[in-house]
Amino acid sequence: MSQTDTVNRRIVLAARPRGLPVPEDFRLEQVEVPEPADGQVLLRTAFLSLDPYMRNLMDEVGPVYAPRVELGAPMVGATVSRVIASRHPRFREGELVLGNAGWQDFALSDGSDLLAVDGIDPPSLALGGLGMTGFTAYVGLLDIGAPKPGDTVVVAAASGAVGAVVGQIARLKGARVVGICGGEEKCRYVVDELGFDACLDRHEPELAARLAVACPDGIDVYFENVGGEVFDAVLPLLNIGARVPVCGIIAHYNDRTLRDGPDRLPLLQSTLLQKRIRMQGFVILDHYAERFEAFRRDMLVWLRDRQVLLREDRVDGLEKAPAAFIGLLQGRNFGKLLVRVAET
Amino acid sequence: MSQTDTVNRRIVLAARPRGLPVPEDFRLEQVEVPEPADGQVLLRTAFLSLDPYMRNLMDEVGPVYAPRVELGAPMVGATVSRVIASRHPRFREGELVLGNAGWQDFALSDGSDLLAVDGIDPPSLALGGLGMTGFTAYVGLLDIGAPKPGDTVVVAAASGAVGAVVGQIARLKGARVVGICGGEEKCRYVVDELGFDACLDRHEPELAARLAVACPDGIDVYFENVGGEVFDAVLPLLNIGARVPVCGIIAHYNDRTLRDGPDRLPLLQSTLLQKRIRMQGFVILDHYAERFEAFRRDMLVWLRDRQVLLREDRVDGLEKAPAAFIGLLQGRNFGKLLVRVAET
């Protein structure tokens, strides 16, 4: 099923995943292109953002911070879309907007969730470095991590959409930055292109020992977006007064039960106490009102001056979204993962 | 061995405890009363403070935030002492000072760790409500917990030296306060005397279910000084944006190994993330310079106006310190535990 102007292809949740999603958990459907009512716009998706948080929304139980995806309903997701018909006074036909059309070619909106994509070039940046993932890096690192010059900042998933920005901002703030990511090529990119001070390949053995060597002064900020073995390697190296913004724990999103013991919850508590560590979860949706403007202003300068570089991992075609998303959960992307659904 | 003016009785660490300390881990010794050199004062202990943190300092390994007690050395501890001989220009014979003489009748000091106990009546308050434990409650609750009017604040060890003050300050800030402590008598005291809104006896069955009933709007601040089953009951009730100052985890101080699984460390991480919780350990020694003055000012007013009530649990005689300390770790004290070593 390729894209047309007359059919709305959409990818719906066919089954709730058990652990890592499989292609059969998704279904590509064709439905009619909807008609905008008065006060609505019809959007055509140009870019769809794929992000790890979507995995949680596919589950039937467990805590989520956005509405779950119902069985049979389209997968949700942020998009850059073109307004192709407008019955809304604020939007004109032809303009590009940031919205939440989800995994489909067309969608309606009443405009309340739309933002103009003015002067952002390429417009897909509104989904990445100038959008949710860049903003996540900015708020988590600066408002919770609060790196000081000379601090050691460790970033997992360092070549990913969030991690790469975290590390570059930390460098701008004078910190020493150690990345962790999967594979030699990503490590080389992070050091050679993005200017991290060091990067460790998490696929190589003895991660904990190598991390200890790479952080001779301990760790002052750990930006947590992975969990699992990376966190296990980080925990004993955290310094007194360390800050741990918790942005995601992708290593656990597919867990169906708790892992075997011993129970290390008290160990984490006692480490937080003895080392006076601040560990704080955050969800970027909470911070738009108060911080988005400052973020946009700073990030536009950093991008213009090439102090922050961004890398997109683009997949062409809506039908490839499920496989790309599954790969994202396995760490197969390299940079901000986007699906180009239609030409902009 | 009773107290005399010519012998220094001191309680030393005889053996490193395996789990809960036993009386044989301590030894009462008699040594000569030391002579002050130039620039020193000789102190005679009036009150010795007994506090849970001392348990950690008795271990050979594991993280500590103050120097460990060496085998054969006197147990450490804060004291209110009288200066009985002074070769130091800042201190005169006869005055009472707050210091760190440890578990002994006499000690020398160069004055650098001494504070005058001016106008504090009774002077033992300098070790409790107007000293370390009150200050711990103040900083942890206000600076990390940040209760807002209408918030639900849960305090474990609610009749203890720290918990009782936490709950009363939280009430002053307009929060609804639910205490947890061991035994019906303590619960009654916390509600009837201290004005907590509710208190649960942790020895009764079904703590988690009872806590859920007592906190119909969830928990906004949990002041952690216990860990163990109390934290297990609290965790699922924490609200979005909750704050968890971690002051102590007395339930685990005697653990010799991690408890059986499953491993709930990832569960704690994912709860912090999904609920945007700030969990932060703190050690009160870090905060004297910046916050002690404000604490003293506020607390003096609250005590004068009887907005904060304090209860001391006094034990008479240095030789009783080991048994009292073991009881403290078992929750047998009722209020701030002090040893009266000599008449003031």
From TrEMBL, chains A, B:
Top-rank taxon: Bacteria
- State what protein this is by name: Enoyl reductase (ER) domain-containing protein
The signal peptide stretch is none
**What molecular functions are annotated in GO for this chain?**
oxidoreductase activity, acting on the CH-CH group of donors, NAD or NADP as acceptor
Keyword Oxidoreductase tagged: yes
Q: Keywords on this record?
A: Oxidoreductase
CDD domains from the UniProt entry = PGDH
Q: Which residues form the Enoyl reductase (ER) domain?
A: 19-339
Q: Pfam families from the entry?
A: ADH_N_2 (PF16884), ADH_zinc_N (PF00107)
